[in-house]
Amino acid sequence: MKLKDKFRFIRQNIKKNKVRTFMTILATAMGCAFLIVLASIGYGIQKSVVEDTLEQQVVTEIDVYGYEEGQGNYRSLTLEDITYLENIDNVKAVTRRNEIRQIPTFKIGEYQIDTVAVSIHYPSEVESGLELADGVFPSEENEVIVGSHFANYLAKNGEDVYDDETGEIKEEFLYKESIKGKTIEMQFADNDEQVHTIPLTIVGVMEEPTREWMQDQSVYISSEVLAKVEEVTGTPRGELGVDPEVYDSTERSEVFDSVSVYANNLEDVQEISDRLEEANYATYSVVSELKQINMLFTVAKAGLILVGTIAIIIASIGIYNTMTMAVTERAPDIGIMKAIGANPKTIKQIFLMESSYIGVIGAVIGVAVAYLTSVLVNTGLPLILEATFGEELPEGLQFSSIPFSLVLISVAICLIVTIVSGLRPAKRATELDVLRAMRREF
Q1: CA proximity to 144, closest of 199, 89, 84
Q2: What's the sign of the alpha-carbon dihedral 48, 51, 57, 60?
Q3: How far is CA 166 from CA 149, 156, 157, 371, in A?
Q4: Most distant CA pair in the chain, distance
Q5: CB 3.0 to 4.6 Å from 418: which of 105, 289, 323, 359, for a disulfide?
Q6: Could you read off the pLDDT of 173-231 as tens digits, one per residue?
Q7: Strands 143-146 and 195-206: what pairing?
Q8: DSSP readout, 59-76?
């Protein structure tokens, strides 16, 4: 029997049982659509989270926390380590920072702010891609840049400075002028509780952090200013409450609190991270975070696909019933085909093709419905949630995403289930006795 004759035989049976076949196809389409839409939620949220991570973090940055000397003991990084890190292939820059270990007070006239002072190495910061929202990078030791939120907390001293309801500084107490070019006084204490002052000039303002919830009100000073603080206090980073004799002053500026390695591009991050780990450096990068996020979502997507598959399996009951009825109704036709010498394999193929035909049509309809549902979810659900809870959702949040791979997985599962559903009826058709089939005695 030719292939076109097989299809003609299949179409004739479908035309005879339009309603039953339609309901079977509908059940298959619903199962396939349910699988795709359910799994698309996992894909959509993963896509949003990953894109948010890539957009809101420096993706080429690798934080290096220390060097393992053995048995879980780590030491801080030194200039020797910086030199080693800078000589690694595909490393663009190695930044290093030190933080004053007390909270200095910074004053502009009668306005002041208590905030963190961080010593940074400007050449490496510029090479890493650090940018300013306003001003220029310091060229003199007493020039500084400040965080983007520094001016938001620069306020007069006095009673009732903070609003009781919001907890924020009242508008009338805030510094209103531009801070660029202003001279500020950094006041810090020594171990004898004597206050010392270093005049500094603000020449630039950092860009706002990529994450909306982050606040940067720090003051970024030069290593020379940090050295002055250490000289006055006699302790590393100006730490109070420690014995100056314990520390070797010649080593204070050669050890760093924070070191970051910047790769030339995202593709080099994993290679550099692996090399640093092999060299016993403790590291962290966005790539590590993405691995964990992707693994979590992979498990979630697998679970959603499994739940969706159950819906298709339920739909397969209808396919099994349809094919069983088809064998019963076409028993005389099967008997005639066997009487004229039709191969049992051919008869089996016809019924398997029919069940596959139902599966393909159901899968196509299911995919189309799934895409339509995905569009409606991404468009309508944010509006519903915002109207219900009165809060604006993050920009770019995607609830549903249907990659082509998900479509292939869903169609493959649908076809496999429908073919398996048709196996038993197809086998039963090949086992029918010719005479009994023609007389419908079975």
Answers
A1: 199
A2: positive
A3: 17, 18, 18, 44
A4: 113
A5: 359
A6: 888 889 999 999 999 999 888 999 999 999 999 998 866 677 899 999 999 999 999 88
A7: parallel
A8: TTEEEEEEEEEETTEEE-
Q: Which two tokens stand for residue 66?
A: 């220390």
Tokens 């997507």: give the residue. 301
Classify the C-alpha dihedral 38-314-412-326 as positive or negative: negative
| HSE-up (13 A, CA, CB side) for residue 45 | 12
Show me where the domains of the chain are located.
3-55+293-438, 61-264
* 419: its two tokens: 């073919």
CB 86 within 8 A of CB 94: yes
Q: Residue 196 phi/psi, 5° resolution? A: -120, 150
Q: Which two tokens stand for residue 417?
A: 């289930």
User: What pairs with residue 143 in β-bridges?
Assistant: 201
Of 287, 333, 359, the closest CA to residue 31 belongs to 359
Place of tokens 């009673």: 159
* Residue 407 C-beta-side C-alpha neighbours within 13 Å: 14
Summarize pLDDT for 93-105 with one digit per residue, the tens: 999 999 999 999 9
Look at the pTM and tell me if it is higher than 0.85.
Answer: no
One-letter identity of residue 412: A
